[in-house]
Structures are given as structure tokens and as C-alpha cells.
């Protein structure tokens, strides 16, 4: 497997990445119900300044892809989207794509990656409930019911950072996760005399 940039001129790979997106999210998200919607997502991810990386096998077949969107003046990048072809899931492709994106973000001076892991179909204990009476308690006690990917992201070093209740309709939250990708403290607020300051 190798990972490289997806080019906006590579329509064949854009088409294959679109198929991967539809197949990876079939039955768990209504975001990309067909190839037209998925292709629009892939093309939008190719906006200048953003990152799109593709994992391919030795024959060039697309195994998966990941997008990164800079926010907060490039200090924080959103993972949007990560999709792995179902036949290649649980084989290290997603982990490799995340690690590669972390490297690219770090090279650009980014400090943090974040993502939203929607629960549209009740795959966690947050699905189908009203978390407002105790948002933080609901998040702290969240359980995986049917293979929601938040546990995958935890294994990759992400932490739970919050919840957006009803993001996808009542009882269908977006679970926010984040990971620091650079340990250096620089700029305003950094203090070399304190532990954790610049090295």
C-alpha cells in the first residue's frame, strides 16, 4: 500500500474515491446516498488549501481516502472525510491514512486534528436519547452499541472533545473528537520557563 495526493485532474481516481465513500457509509449515514453526492464531496475536498490523500494497493486500486480542512489559521485541521472500502476495513488502511494526514498537518504547522463522528442510526448510547440534562455525563458514559468508529479513533490517539446534540435530527448527535499532532508550544501563550514550554 502507498499513500499519495489526489489530484483534481485525476478524474478516474476521483470516481473510484466516490465509490469508496458511498460503500463505506452505506446504511450508517444519509450524507452520501449516491455516486453524484459522493463525487461532489470528493471534488469539494479538493478545494485549494485542503488536503486529500489516497491509499492505493500495488495495482493502483483505491483502498481508501482521507481529507483535511484547515481551520483556525491552519492551527487546527478537520478530518473530513475518512473512507475505507469495506473489503479493506480492519486491515490498517484507515490507521495509515490518519497517520499520513497527521504528518502532512504537522509539516504545515498544524497543532490539532479534530473530527465529527456522527451517530445517525443509534450506534452509540448517545443515539436516540436526549443528552441535555447532563451532556458531559452522557459523553463520559458513552458506550459503543454497534461498531461506531469512535473506538477506532480512540485507539488512534483521539479523545472525546464534545457532542453536538441533534446535529442530524433529534437524538442523532455528532460526536466531536480531537488529537494533538504537535507537541511544541509556540506563539502567544507559550512560556519556555514552564513545563511543557518550547524545547
How would you describe this structure to a colleague?
Helices cover 27% and strands 25% of the residues. With 199 residues, the chain is an alpha+beta fold. It folds into two domains: 1-110, 3-Layer(aba) Sandwich (Aminopeptidase); 114-185, Aminopeptidase (3-Layer(aba) Sandwich), CATH 3.40.630. The protein has a seven-stranded mixed β-sheet with strand order 1-2-3-4-5-7-6. α3 links the parallel β4 (76-84) and β5 (112-118). α1 (11-25) packs across α2. Residues 191-199 have low confidence and may be disordered.
Determine and state the CATH class of the largest domain.
Answer: Alpha Beta
The tally of helices reads 5
Radius of gyration: 18 Å
Helix content: 25-40%
Distance between the termini: 35 Å
Tell me the strand percentage band: 15-25%
Poorly predicted residue ranges: 191-199
**Strand tally:** 7
Q: What is the H/E order?
A: EHHEEEHEHHEE
What would the principal axes of the Cα set say about the shape? globular
Assigned CATH superfamily of the largest domain: Gcn5-related N-acetyltransferase (GNAT)
- The CATH architecture classification of the largest domain is 3-Layer(aba) Sandwich
Strand order, sheet with most strands: 1-2-3-4-5-7-6
Using the coordinates shown, work out and report the CATH topology of the largest domain. Aminopeptidase
Number of domains: 2
- Mean pLDDT score, rounded? 90
* Major β-sheet annotation: 7 strands, mixed
The assigned structural class equals: alpha+beta
Amino acid at each position: 500500500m502507498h499513500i499519495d495526493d489526489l489530484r483534481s485532474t485525476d478524474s478516474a481516481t476521483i470516481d473510484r474515491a466516490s465509490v469508496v465513500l458511498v460503500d463505506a457509509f452505506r446504511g450508517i449515514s444519509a450524507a452520501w446516498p449516491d455516486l453524484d453526492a459522493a463525487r461532489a464531496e470528493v471534488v469539494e475536498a479538493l478545494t485549494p488549501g485542503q488536503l486529500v490523500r489516497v491509499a492505493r494497493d500495488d495495482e493502483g486500486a483505491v483502498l481508501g481516502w482521507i481529507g483535511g480542512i484547515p481551520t483556525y489559521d491552519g492551527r487546527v485541521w478537520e478530518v473530513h472525510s475518512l473512507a475505507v472500502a469495506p473489503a479493506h476495513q480492519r486491515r490498517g488502511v484507515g490507521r495509515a491514512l490518519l497517520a499520513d494526514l497527521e504528518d502532512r498537518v504537522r509539516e504545515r504547522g498544524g497543532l490539532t486534528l479534530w473530527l465529527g463522528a456522527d451517530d445517525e442510526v443509534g450506534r452509540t448510547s448517545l443515539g436516540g436519547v436526549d443528552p441535555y440534562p447532563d451532556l458531559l455525563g452522557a459523553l463520559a458514559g458513552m458506550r459503543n452499541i454497534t461498531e461506531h468508529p469512535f473506538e477506532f479513533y480512540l485507539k488512534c490517539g483521539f479523545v472525546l472533545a464534545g457532542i453536538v446534540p441533534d446535529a442530524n435530527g433529534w437524538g442523532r448527535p455528532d460526536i466531536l473528537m480531537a488529537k494533538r499532532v504537535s507537541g511544541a508550544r509556540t506563539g502567544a501563550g507559550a512560556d519556555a520557563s514552564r513545563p511543557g514550554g518550547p524545547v
